[in-house]
Each structure stands twice: as C-alpha cells, then as structure tokens.
Amino acid sequence: MQARTTRWALALTLSAALGGCGYNDFQRLDEQTVSAWAEVLNQYQRRADLVPNLVATVKGEAAFEQETLTRVIEARSRATAIQVTPDMLNDPQAMQRFQAAQGELGSALSRLLVVSEQYPNLKANQGFGDLRVQLEGTENRITVARNRYIQSVQDYNVLARSFPSNLTAMVFGYSPKANFSVANEAALSVPPQVDFQKK
C-alpha cells in the first residue's frame, strides 16, 4: 500500500513539475507554429495554382513578352519543386531556400503584372482582370498568413530561450524555429529608382 501511495505522489509531483516547466506550453506553441505554417503553404499553393491560368490568359496576347512569361513559368516550377516537410521549420537553410523560391515567383508575377499594363487588349480582358484581382487577394492572404506564422514562431522561440523553460527545451530537444527573414536587408535602405519615361 505504501509503495502505491509513493508512486501516486511521485506521479503527481512529476506532472506538476512538468506543467510548471513549460512542457505543455511547448506542445501548444509547437502545434500553433505547425498550424500557422500550414496556412502559409496553403496560400502559396493558391498562388501557384493561379499561375497556369494567368499564363494561359496572357499567352492569348500575341505580342506579349515571351521572356516575362518564361520567368514566371520557371519561377513557379522552382517554387513548387521544393519539398516542404515539418522539419523545414527547424532548418534555417531550408527556410531560406523556400523563401528565395517564393520570392522569385512573387517577383516574376509582379513583373508580369507591370508588363501587362502596356497591353490594352490584355488590360481590357475580363478573365485577366479577374485573375489579377485573385492574385492580388492571394498576395494579401500570404502576407497575413506569414505574419501569423512569424508571431507563432516568436512566441515559441521566446519560450525556448526564457528561463526556466529553456531547461525544458534542452531536455526535450525543443530548439528555436527558423523564421521568415528579408533576403537582402541592405537593399531595403536603398530608395527605389523611378523612371517615368516609356520604354
């Protein structure tokens, strides 16, 4: 009887100690980051799914710049070729590769939309206009999803680095997660060049 009481007391003490050390918080915040990441991927996939329709619509404009279309198609191919796994959340290099590919696709799409302004028939095409609105909405959704993910990772990383929960992180292997970053921070300080001359 004494041994059974001792085991129960030990189990209660252990669960109280684990509850106060941040273990449960790690579980909650880890699930939160995984969920937020899934939403980021969902929005990127939505954008990737819009690209073929957008390219097909633009191809209807006979004189449209082939180089611009090729860049969009190649960027989409590279962005969708990256195998996204849950382990990516803990791998800063994999996150950088993923970000670079998504950034390249975003840049190619922006270029496509800028170039399309020079084609009146394309601007007047209702299908193209609808796709453009959907793409702009998706870009906004991507921004919101990324911001939620950034906040989730921040909450998780603060827990992983704060005392005494950092001891729990070391014991159970909860390392800080990789976050989105700016590819070229130095470029942010350079003002954009604006050229109003038609080319």
Summarize the structure in short.
The protein has 199 residues and is mostly helical.
Contiguous runs where pLDDT drops below 50 for at least 5 residues: 192-199
Distance between the termini: 90 Å
Instruction: Give the C-alpha Rg.
Output: 24 Å
Strand content: under 5%
Q: What order do the SSEs take from the amino end to the carboxyl end, as H and E?
A: HHHHHHHH
What characterizes the major β-sheet?
none
Q: Assign an overall shape.
A: elongated
| CATH topology assignment of the domain at 38-138 | de novo design (two linked rop proteins)
CATH architectural category of the domain at 38-138: Up-down Bundle
CATH class of the domain at 38-138: Mainly Alpha
Which range best describes the helical content: under 10%, 10-25%, 25-40%, 40-55%, 55-70% or over 70%?
over 70%
Extended strand count: 0
| CATH homology superfamily name of the domain at 38-138 | LemA-like domain
Overall mean pLDDT stands at 82
| Secondary structure category | mainly alpha
Number of helices: 8
Assembly form of the protein: single chain
Which helices and strands, and how do they pair?
Layout: H1 2-20, H2 23-59, H3 66-81, H4 92-116, H5 120-124, H6 126-161, H7 165-172, H8 185-188
Helix pairs in contact: 2-3, 2-6, 3-4
